[in-house]
UniProtKB/TrEMBL annotation:
Annotated Threonine synthase N-terminal domain residues: 2-79
A Pfam family reported for this protein in Swiss-Prot or TrEMBL: PALP
Family: Belongs to the threonine synthase family.
Source taxon at top rank: Bacteria
Protein name: Threonine synthase
One term of GO molecular function: threonine synthase activity
């Protein structure tokens, strides 16, 4: 399996060559030269597999340069009931991603696929935990070290820290805005005592943290000497790890070959639903891929109108589903590449327009027609009032508390039900992470998985830093010894 850049200039690379990297050198994103295909017989044979072994079967089609026994050991080490232990009472934790039927609506089953039972209670753990083990394995084989530098306003940073804690050859330097995260999120990250995890609380806002990461990364000499890397959502291994739960969801929602299932995905950077698109391209019988956005509706606007118009930071709203507050969907380029027939030159021109003119418009083109037809994409948006109403309705109707992002998914999924086609909504976080909105909707605190009781009282380990890239650089150099 070889990988190409969406912008077309790169010589094909192997999985191991792109694992530790981010963007391709030409500024594009990596995709396989061809999507591996899965037959109906193969799918039926996979019904009896554990999640870890299903992950092995799917990943081995993409990473054929990792010896099979090593890859199997990596998936079995990652996908265990001990790591994904935060499921609700009554869910089958052995499934890792349990499927729960909420009820019958619009002549079909409305179902919830639980992706947030990992250590940080959000779906990012599904891919990040595997990435941690793959990084440790790949660095060990190459005899290299990696220092991961990131900025977080909450979710991604904690998923990265829980995935990399205690891993040989890896350190994490995570910047967050000092005193700006929720008490729960702060406790989740700062209570980690592992010596390879460094929490740097910057006196500034999230954008300042991101600017520092950019400034450090732009110092190429420093970046190379300190072996600085990232774990952002464009990392191919993260996307491919997410492909697995679309297969698992389909297997849990169906009983025989060829049955169609639709998925609804609360979306921000388009990483999650991009994995659904890839599963569909591999031959998984997916009917619709429903993209749900919040008030930051760049993606909904595109799927409705064909116009992709990125927003400026000042036009990006802070909402009660904060992990979907994006102005520019970083994985979107992967879908557009397939949509325009994998033409790297044409793709590069479109994304030059994004940089220079703020977007592009495919309305009225044959490509736009293919979005719904051949590719099965539809979309919708949800607001704070929709979230609150949906959380209340789910609690009253089905006795389940859902988080704000998942509420956006349910709201939009209900606009796209077709009789006889199960609608599987991806649960991207547990409600314990977003207590304020749950209190507003239901008048009480969300339930907390047992492991998180009293987490705010644990000792915290962090460094306060001035909003100054040179201080951050000095801190990193002082702790890597490089
Ligand atoms: C990251 C995140 C999303 C958005 O996922 P993308 O892959 O960026 O589209 C949605 N919900 C939650 C809870 C998240 O953490």
């Amino acid at each position: 399996m070889k990988y190409q850049s969406t912008r077309g200039h790169e010589v094909p690379q192997s999985f191991s060559e792109i694992l530790l990297g981010g963007l391709a050198p030409d500024g594009g994103l990596y995709l396989p030269v061809q999507y591996p295909q899965v037959t109906a017989d193969e799918l039926e044979a996979w019904r009896k597999l554990s999640y870890a072994d299903l992950a092995f079967e799917i990943l081995s089609k993409f990473c054929d340069d990792i010896p099979a026994e090593d890859l199997r050991a990596l998936t079995r080490k990652t996908y265990t009931a001990e790591v994904y232990c935060n499921a609700r009472a009554g869910d089958n934790t052995a499934d890792i991603t349990p499927l729960r039927t909420l009820g019958e609506e619009g002549g079909t089953k409305l179902q919830l696929l639980g992706l947030s039972n990992g250590p940080t209670l959000a779906f990012k753990d599904m891919a990040m935990q595997l990435l941690g083990n793959m990084f440790e394995y790949a660095l060990g084989r190459a005899g290299l070290e990696l220092n991961i530098l990131g900025a977080t306003s909450g979710d991604t940073g904690s998923a990265a820290e829980y995935a990399m804690r205690g891993k040989r050859g890896i350190r994490v330097f995570m910047l967050s805005p000092h005193r700006k995260m929720s008490a729960f999120q702060t406790a989740q990250m700062f209570s980690l005592q592992d010596p390879n995890i460094f929490n740097l609380a910057v006196e500034g806002v999230f954008d300042d943290c991101q600017d520092i990461v950019k400034a450090v990364s732009n110092d190429l000499e420093y970046k190379a000497r300190q072996r600085i890397g990232t774990v952002n959502s464009i990392n191919w291994a993260r996307v491919v790890a997410q492909v697995v739960y679309y297969f698992k969801g389909w297997l849990l929602a169906t009983t025989g070959p060829g049955q169609k299932v639709s998925f609804c995905v609360p979306s921000g950077n388009f990483g999650n639903v991009c994995a659904g698109h890839i599963a569909r391209m591999m031959g998984l019988p997916i009917d619709k891929l429903v993209v749900a956005t919040n008030e930051n509706d760049v993606l909904d606007e595109f799927f409705r109108s064909g116009a992709y118009r990125v927003r400026k930071s000042a036009e990006t709203y802070h909402t009660s589903s904060p992990s979907m507050d994006i102005s520019k969907a970083s994985n979107f380029e992967r879908f557009i590449f397939d949509l325009i027939g994998q033409d790297g030159g044409k793709l590069a021109a479109l994304f030059r327009d994004v940089d220079e003119k703020g977007g592009f418009d495919l309305s009225g083109t044959p490509e736009y027609e293919r979005i719904r037809g051949e590719f099965g994409f539809v979309s919708g948006r949800s607001t704070h009032d929709d979230r609150v109403a949906t959380i209340r309705d789910m609690s009253a109707r089905y006795g389940i508390t859902i988080d704000t992002h998942t509420a956006d998914g349910i709201k939009v999924a209900r606009e796209h039900l077709s009789a006889g086609v199960p609608m599987v909504v991806l649960e991207t976080a547990l409600p314990a992470k977003f207590a304020d909105t749950i209190r507003e909707a239901l008048g009480h605190e969300p339930e907390r998985p047992a492991a998180f009781e009293g987490i705010e009282k644990l000792p915290q380990r962090f460094e306060v830093m001035a909003n100054d890239a040179s201080q951050v650089k000095a801190f990193i150099a002082g702790h890597t010894g490089l």
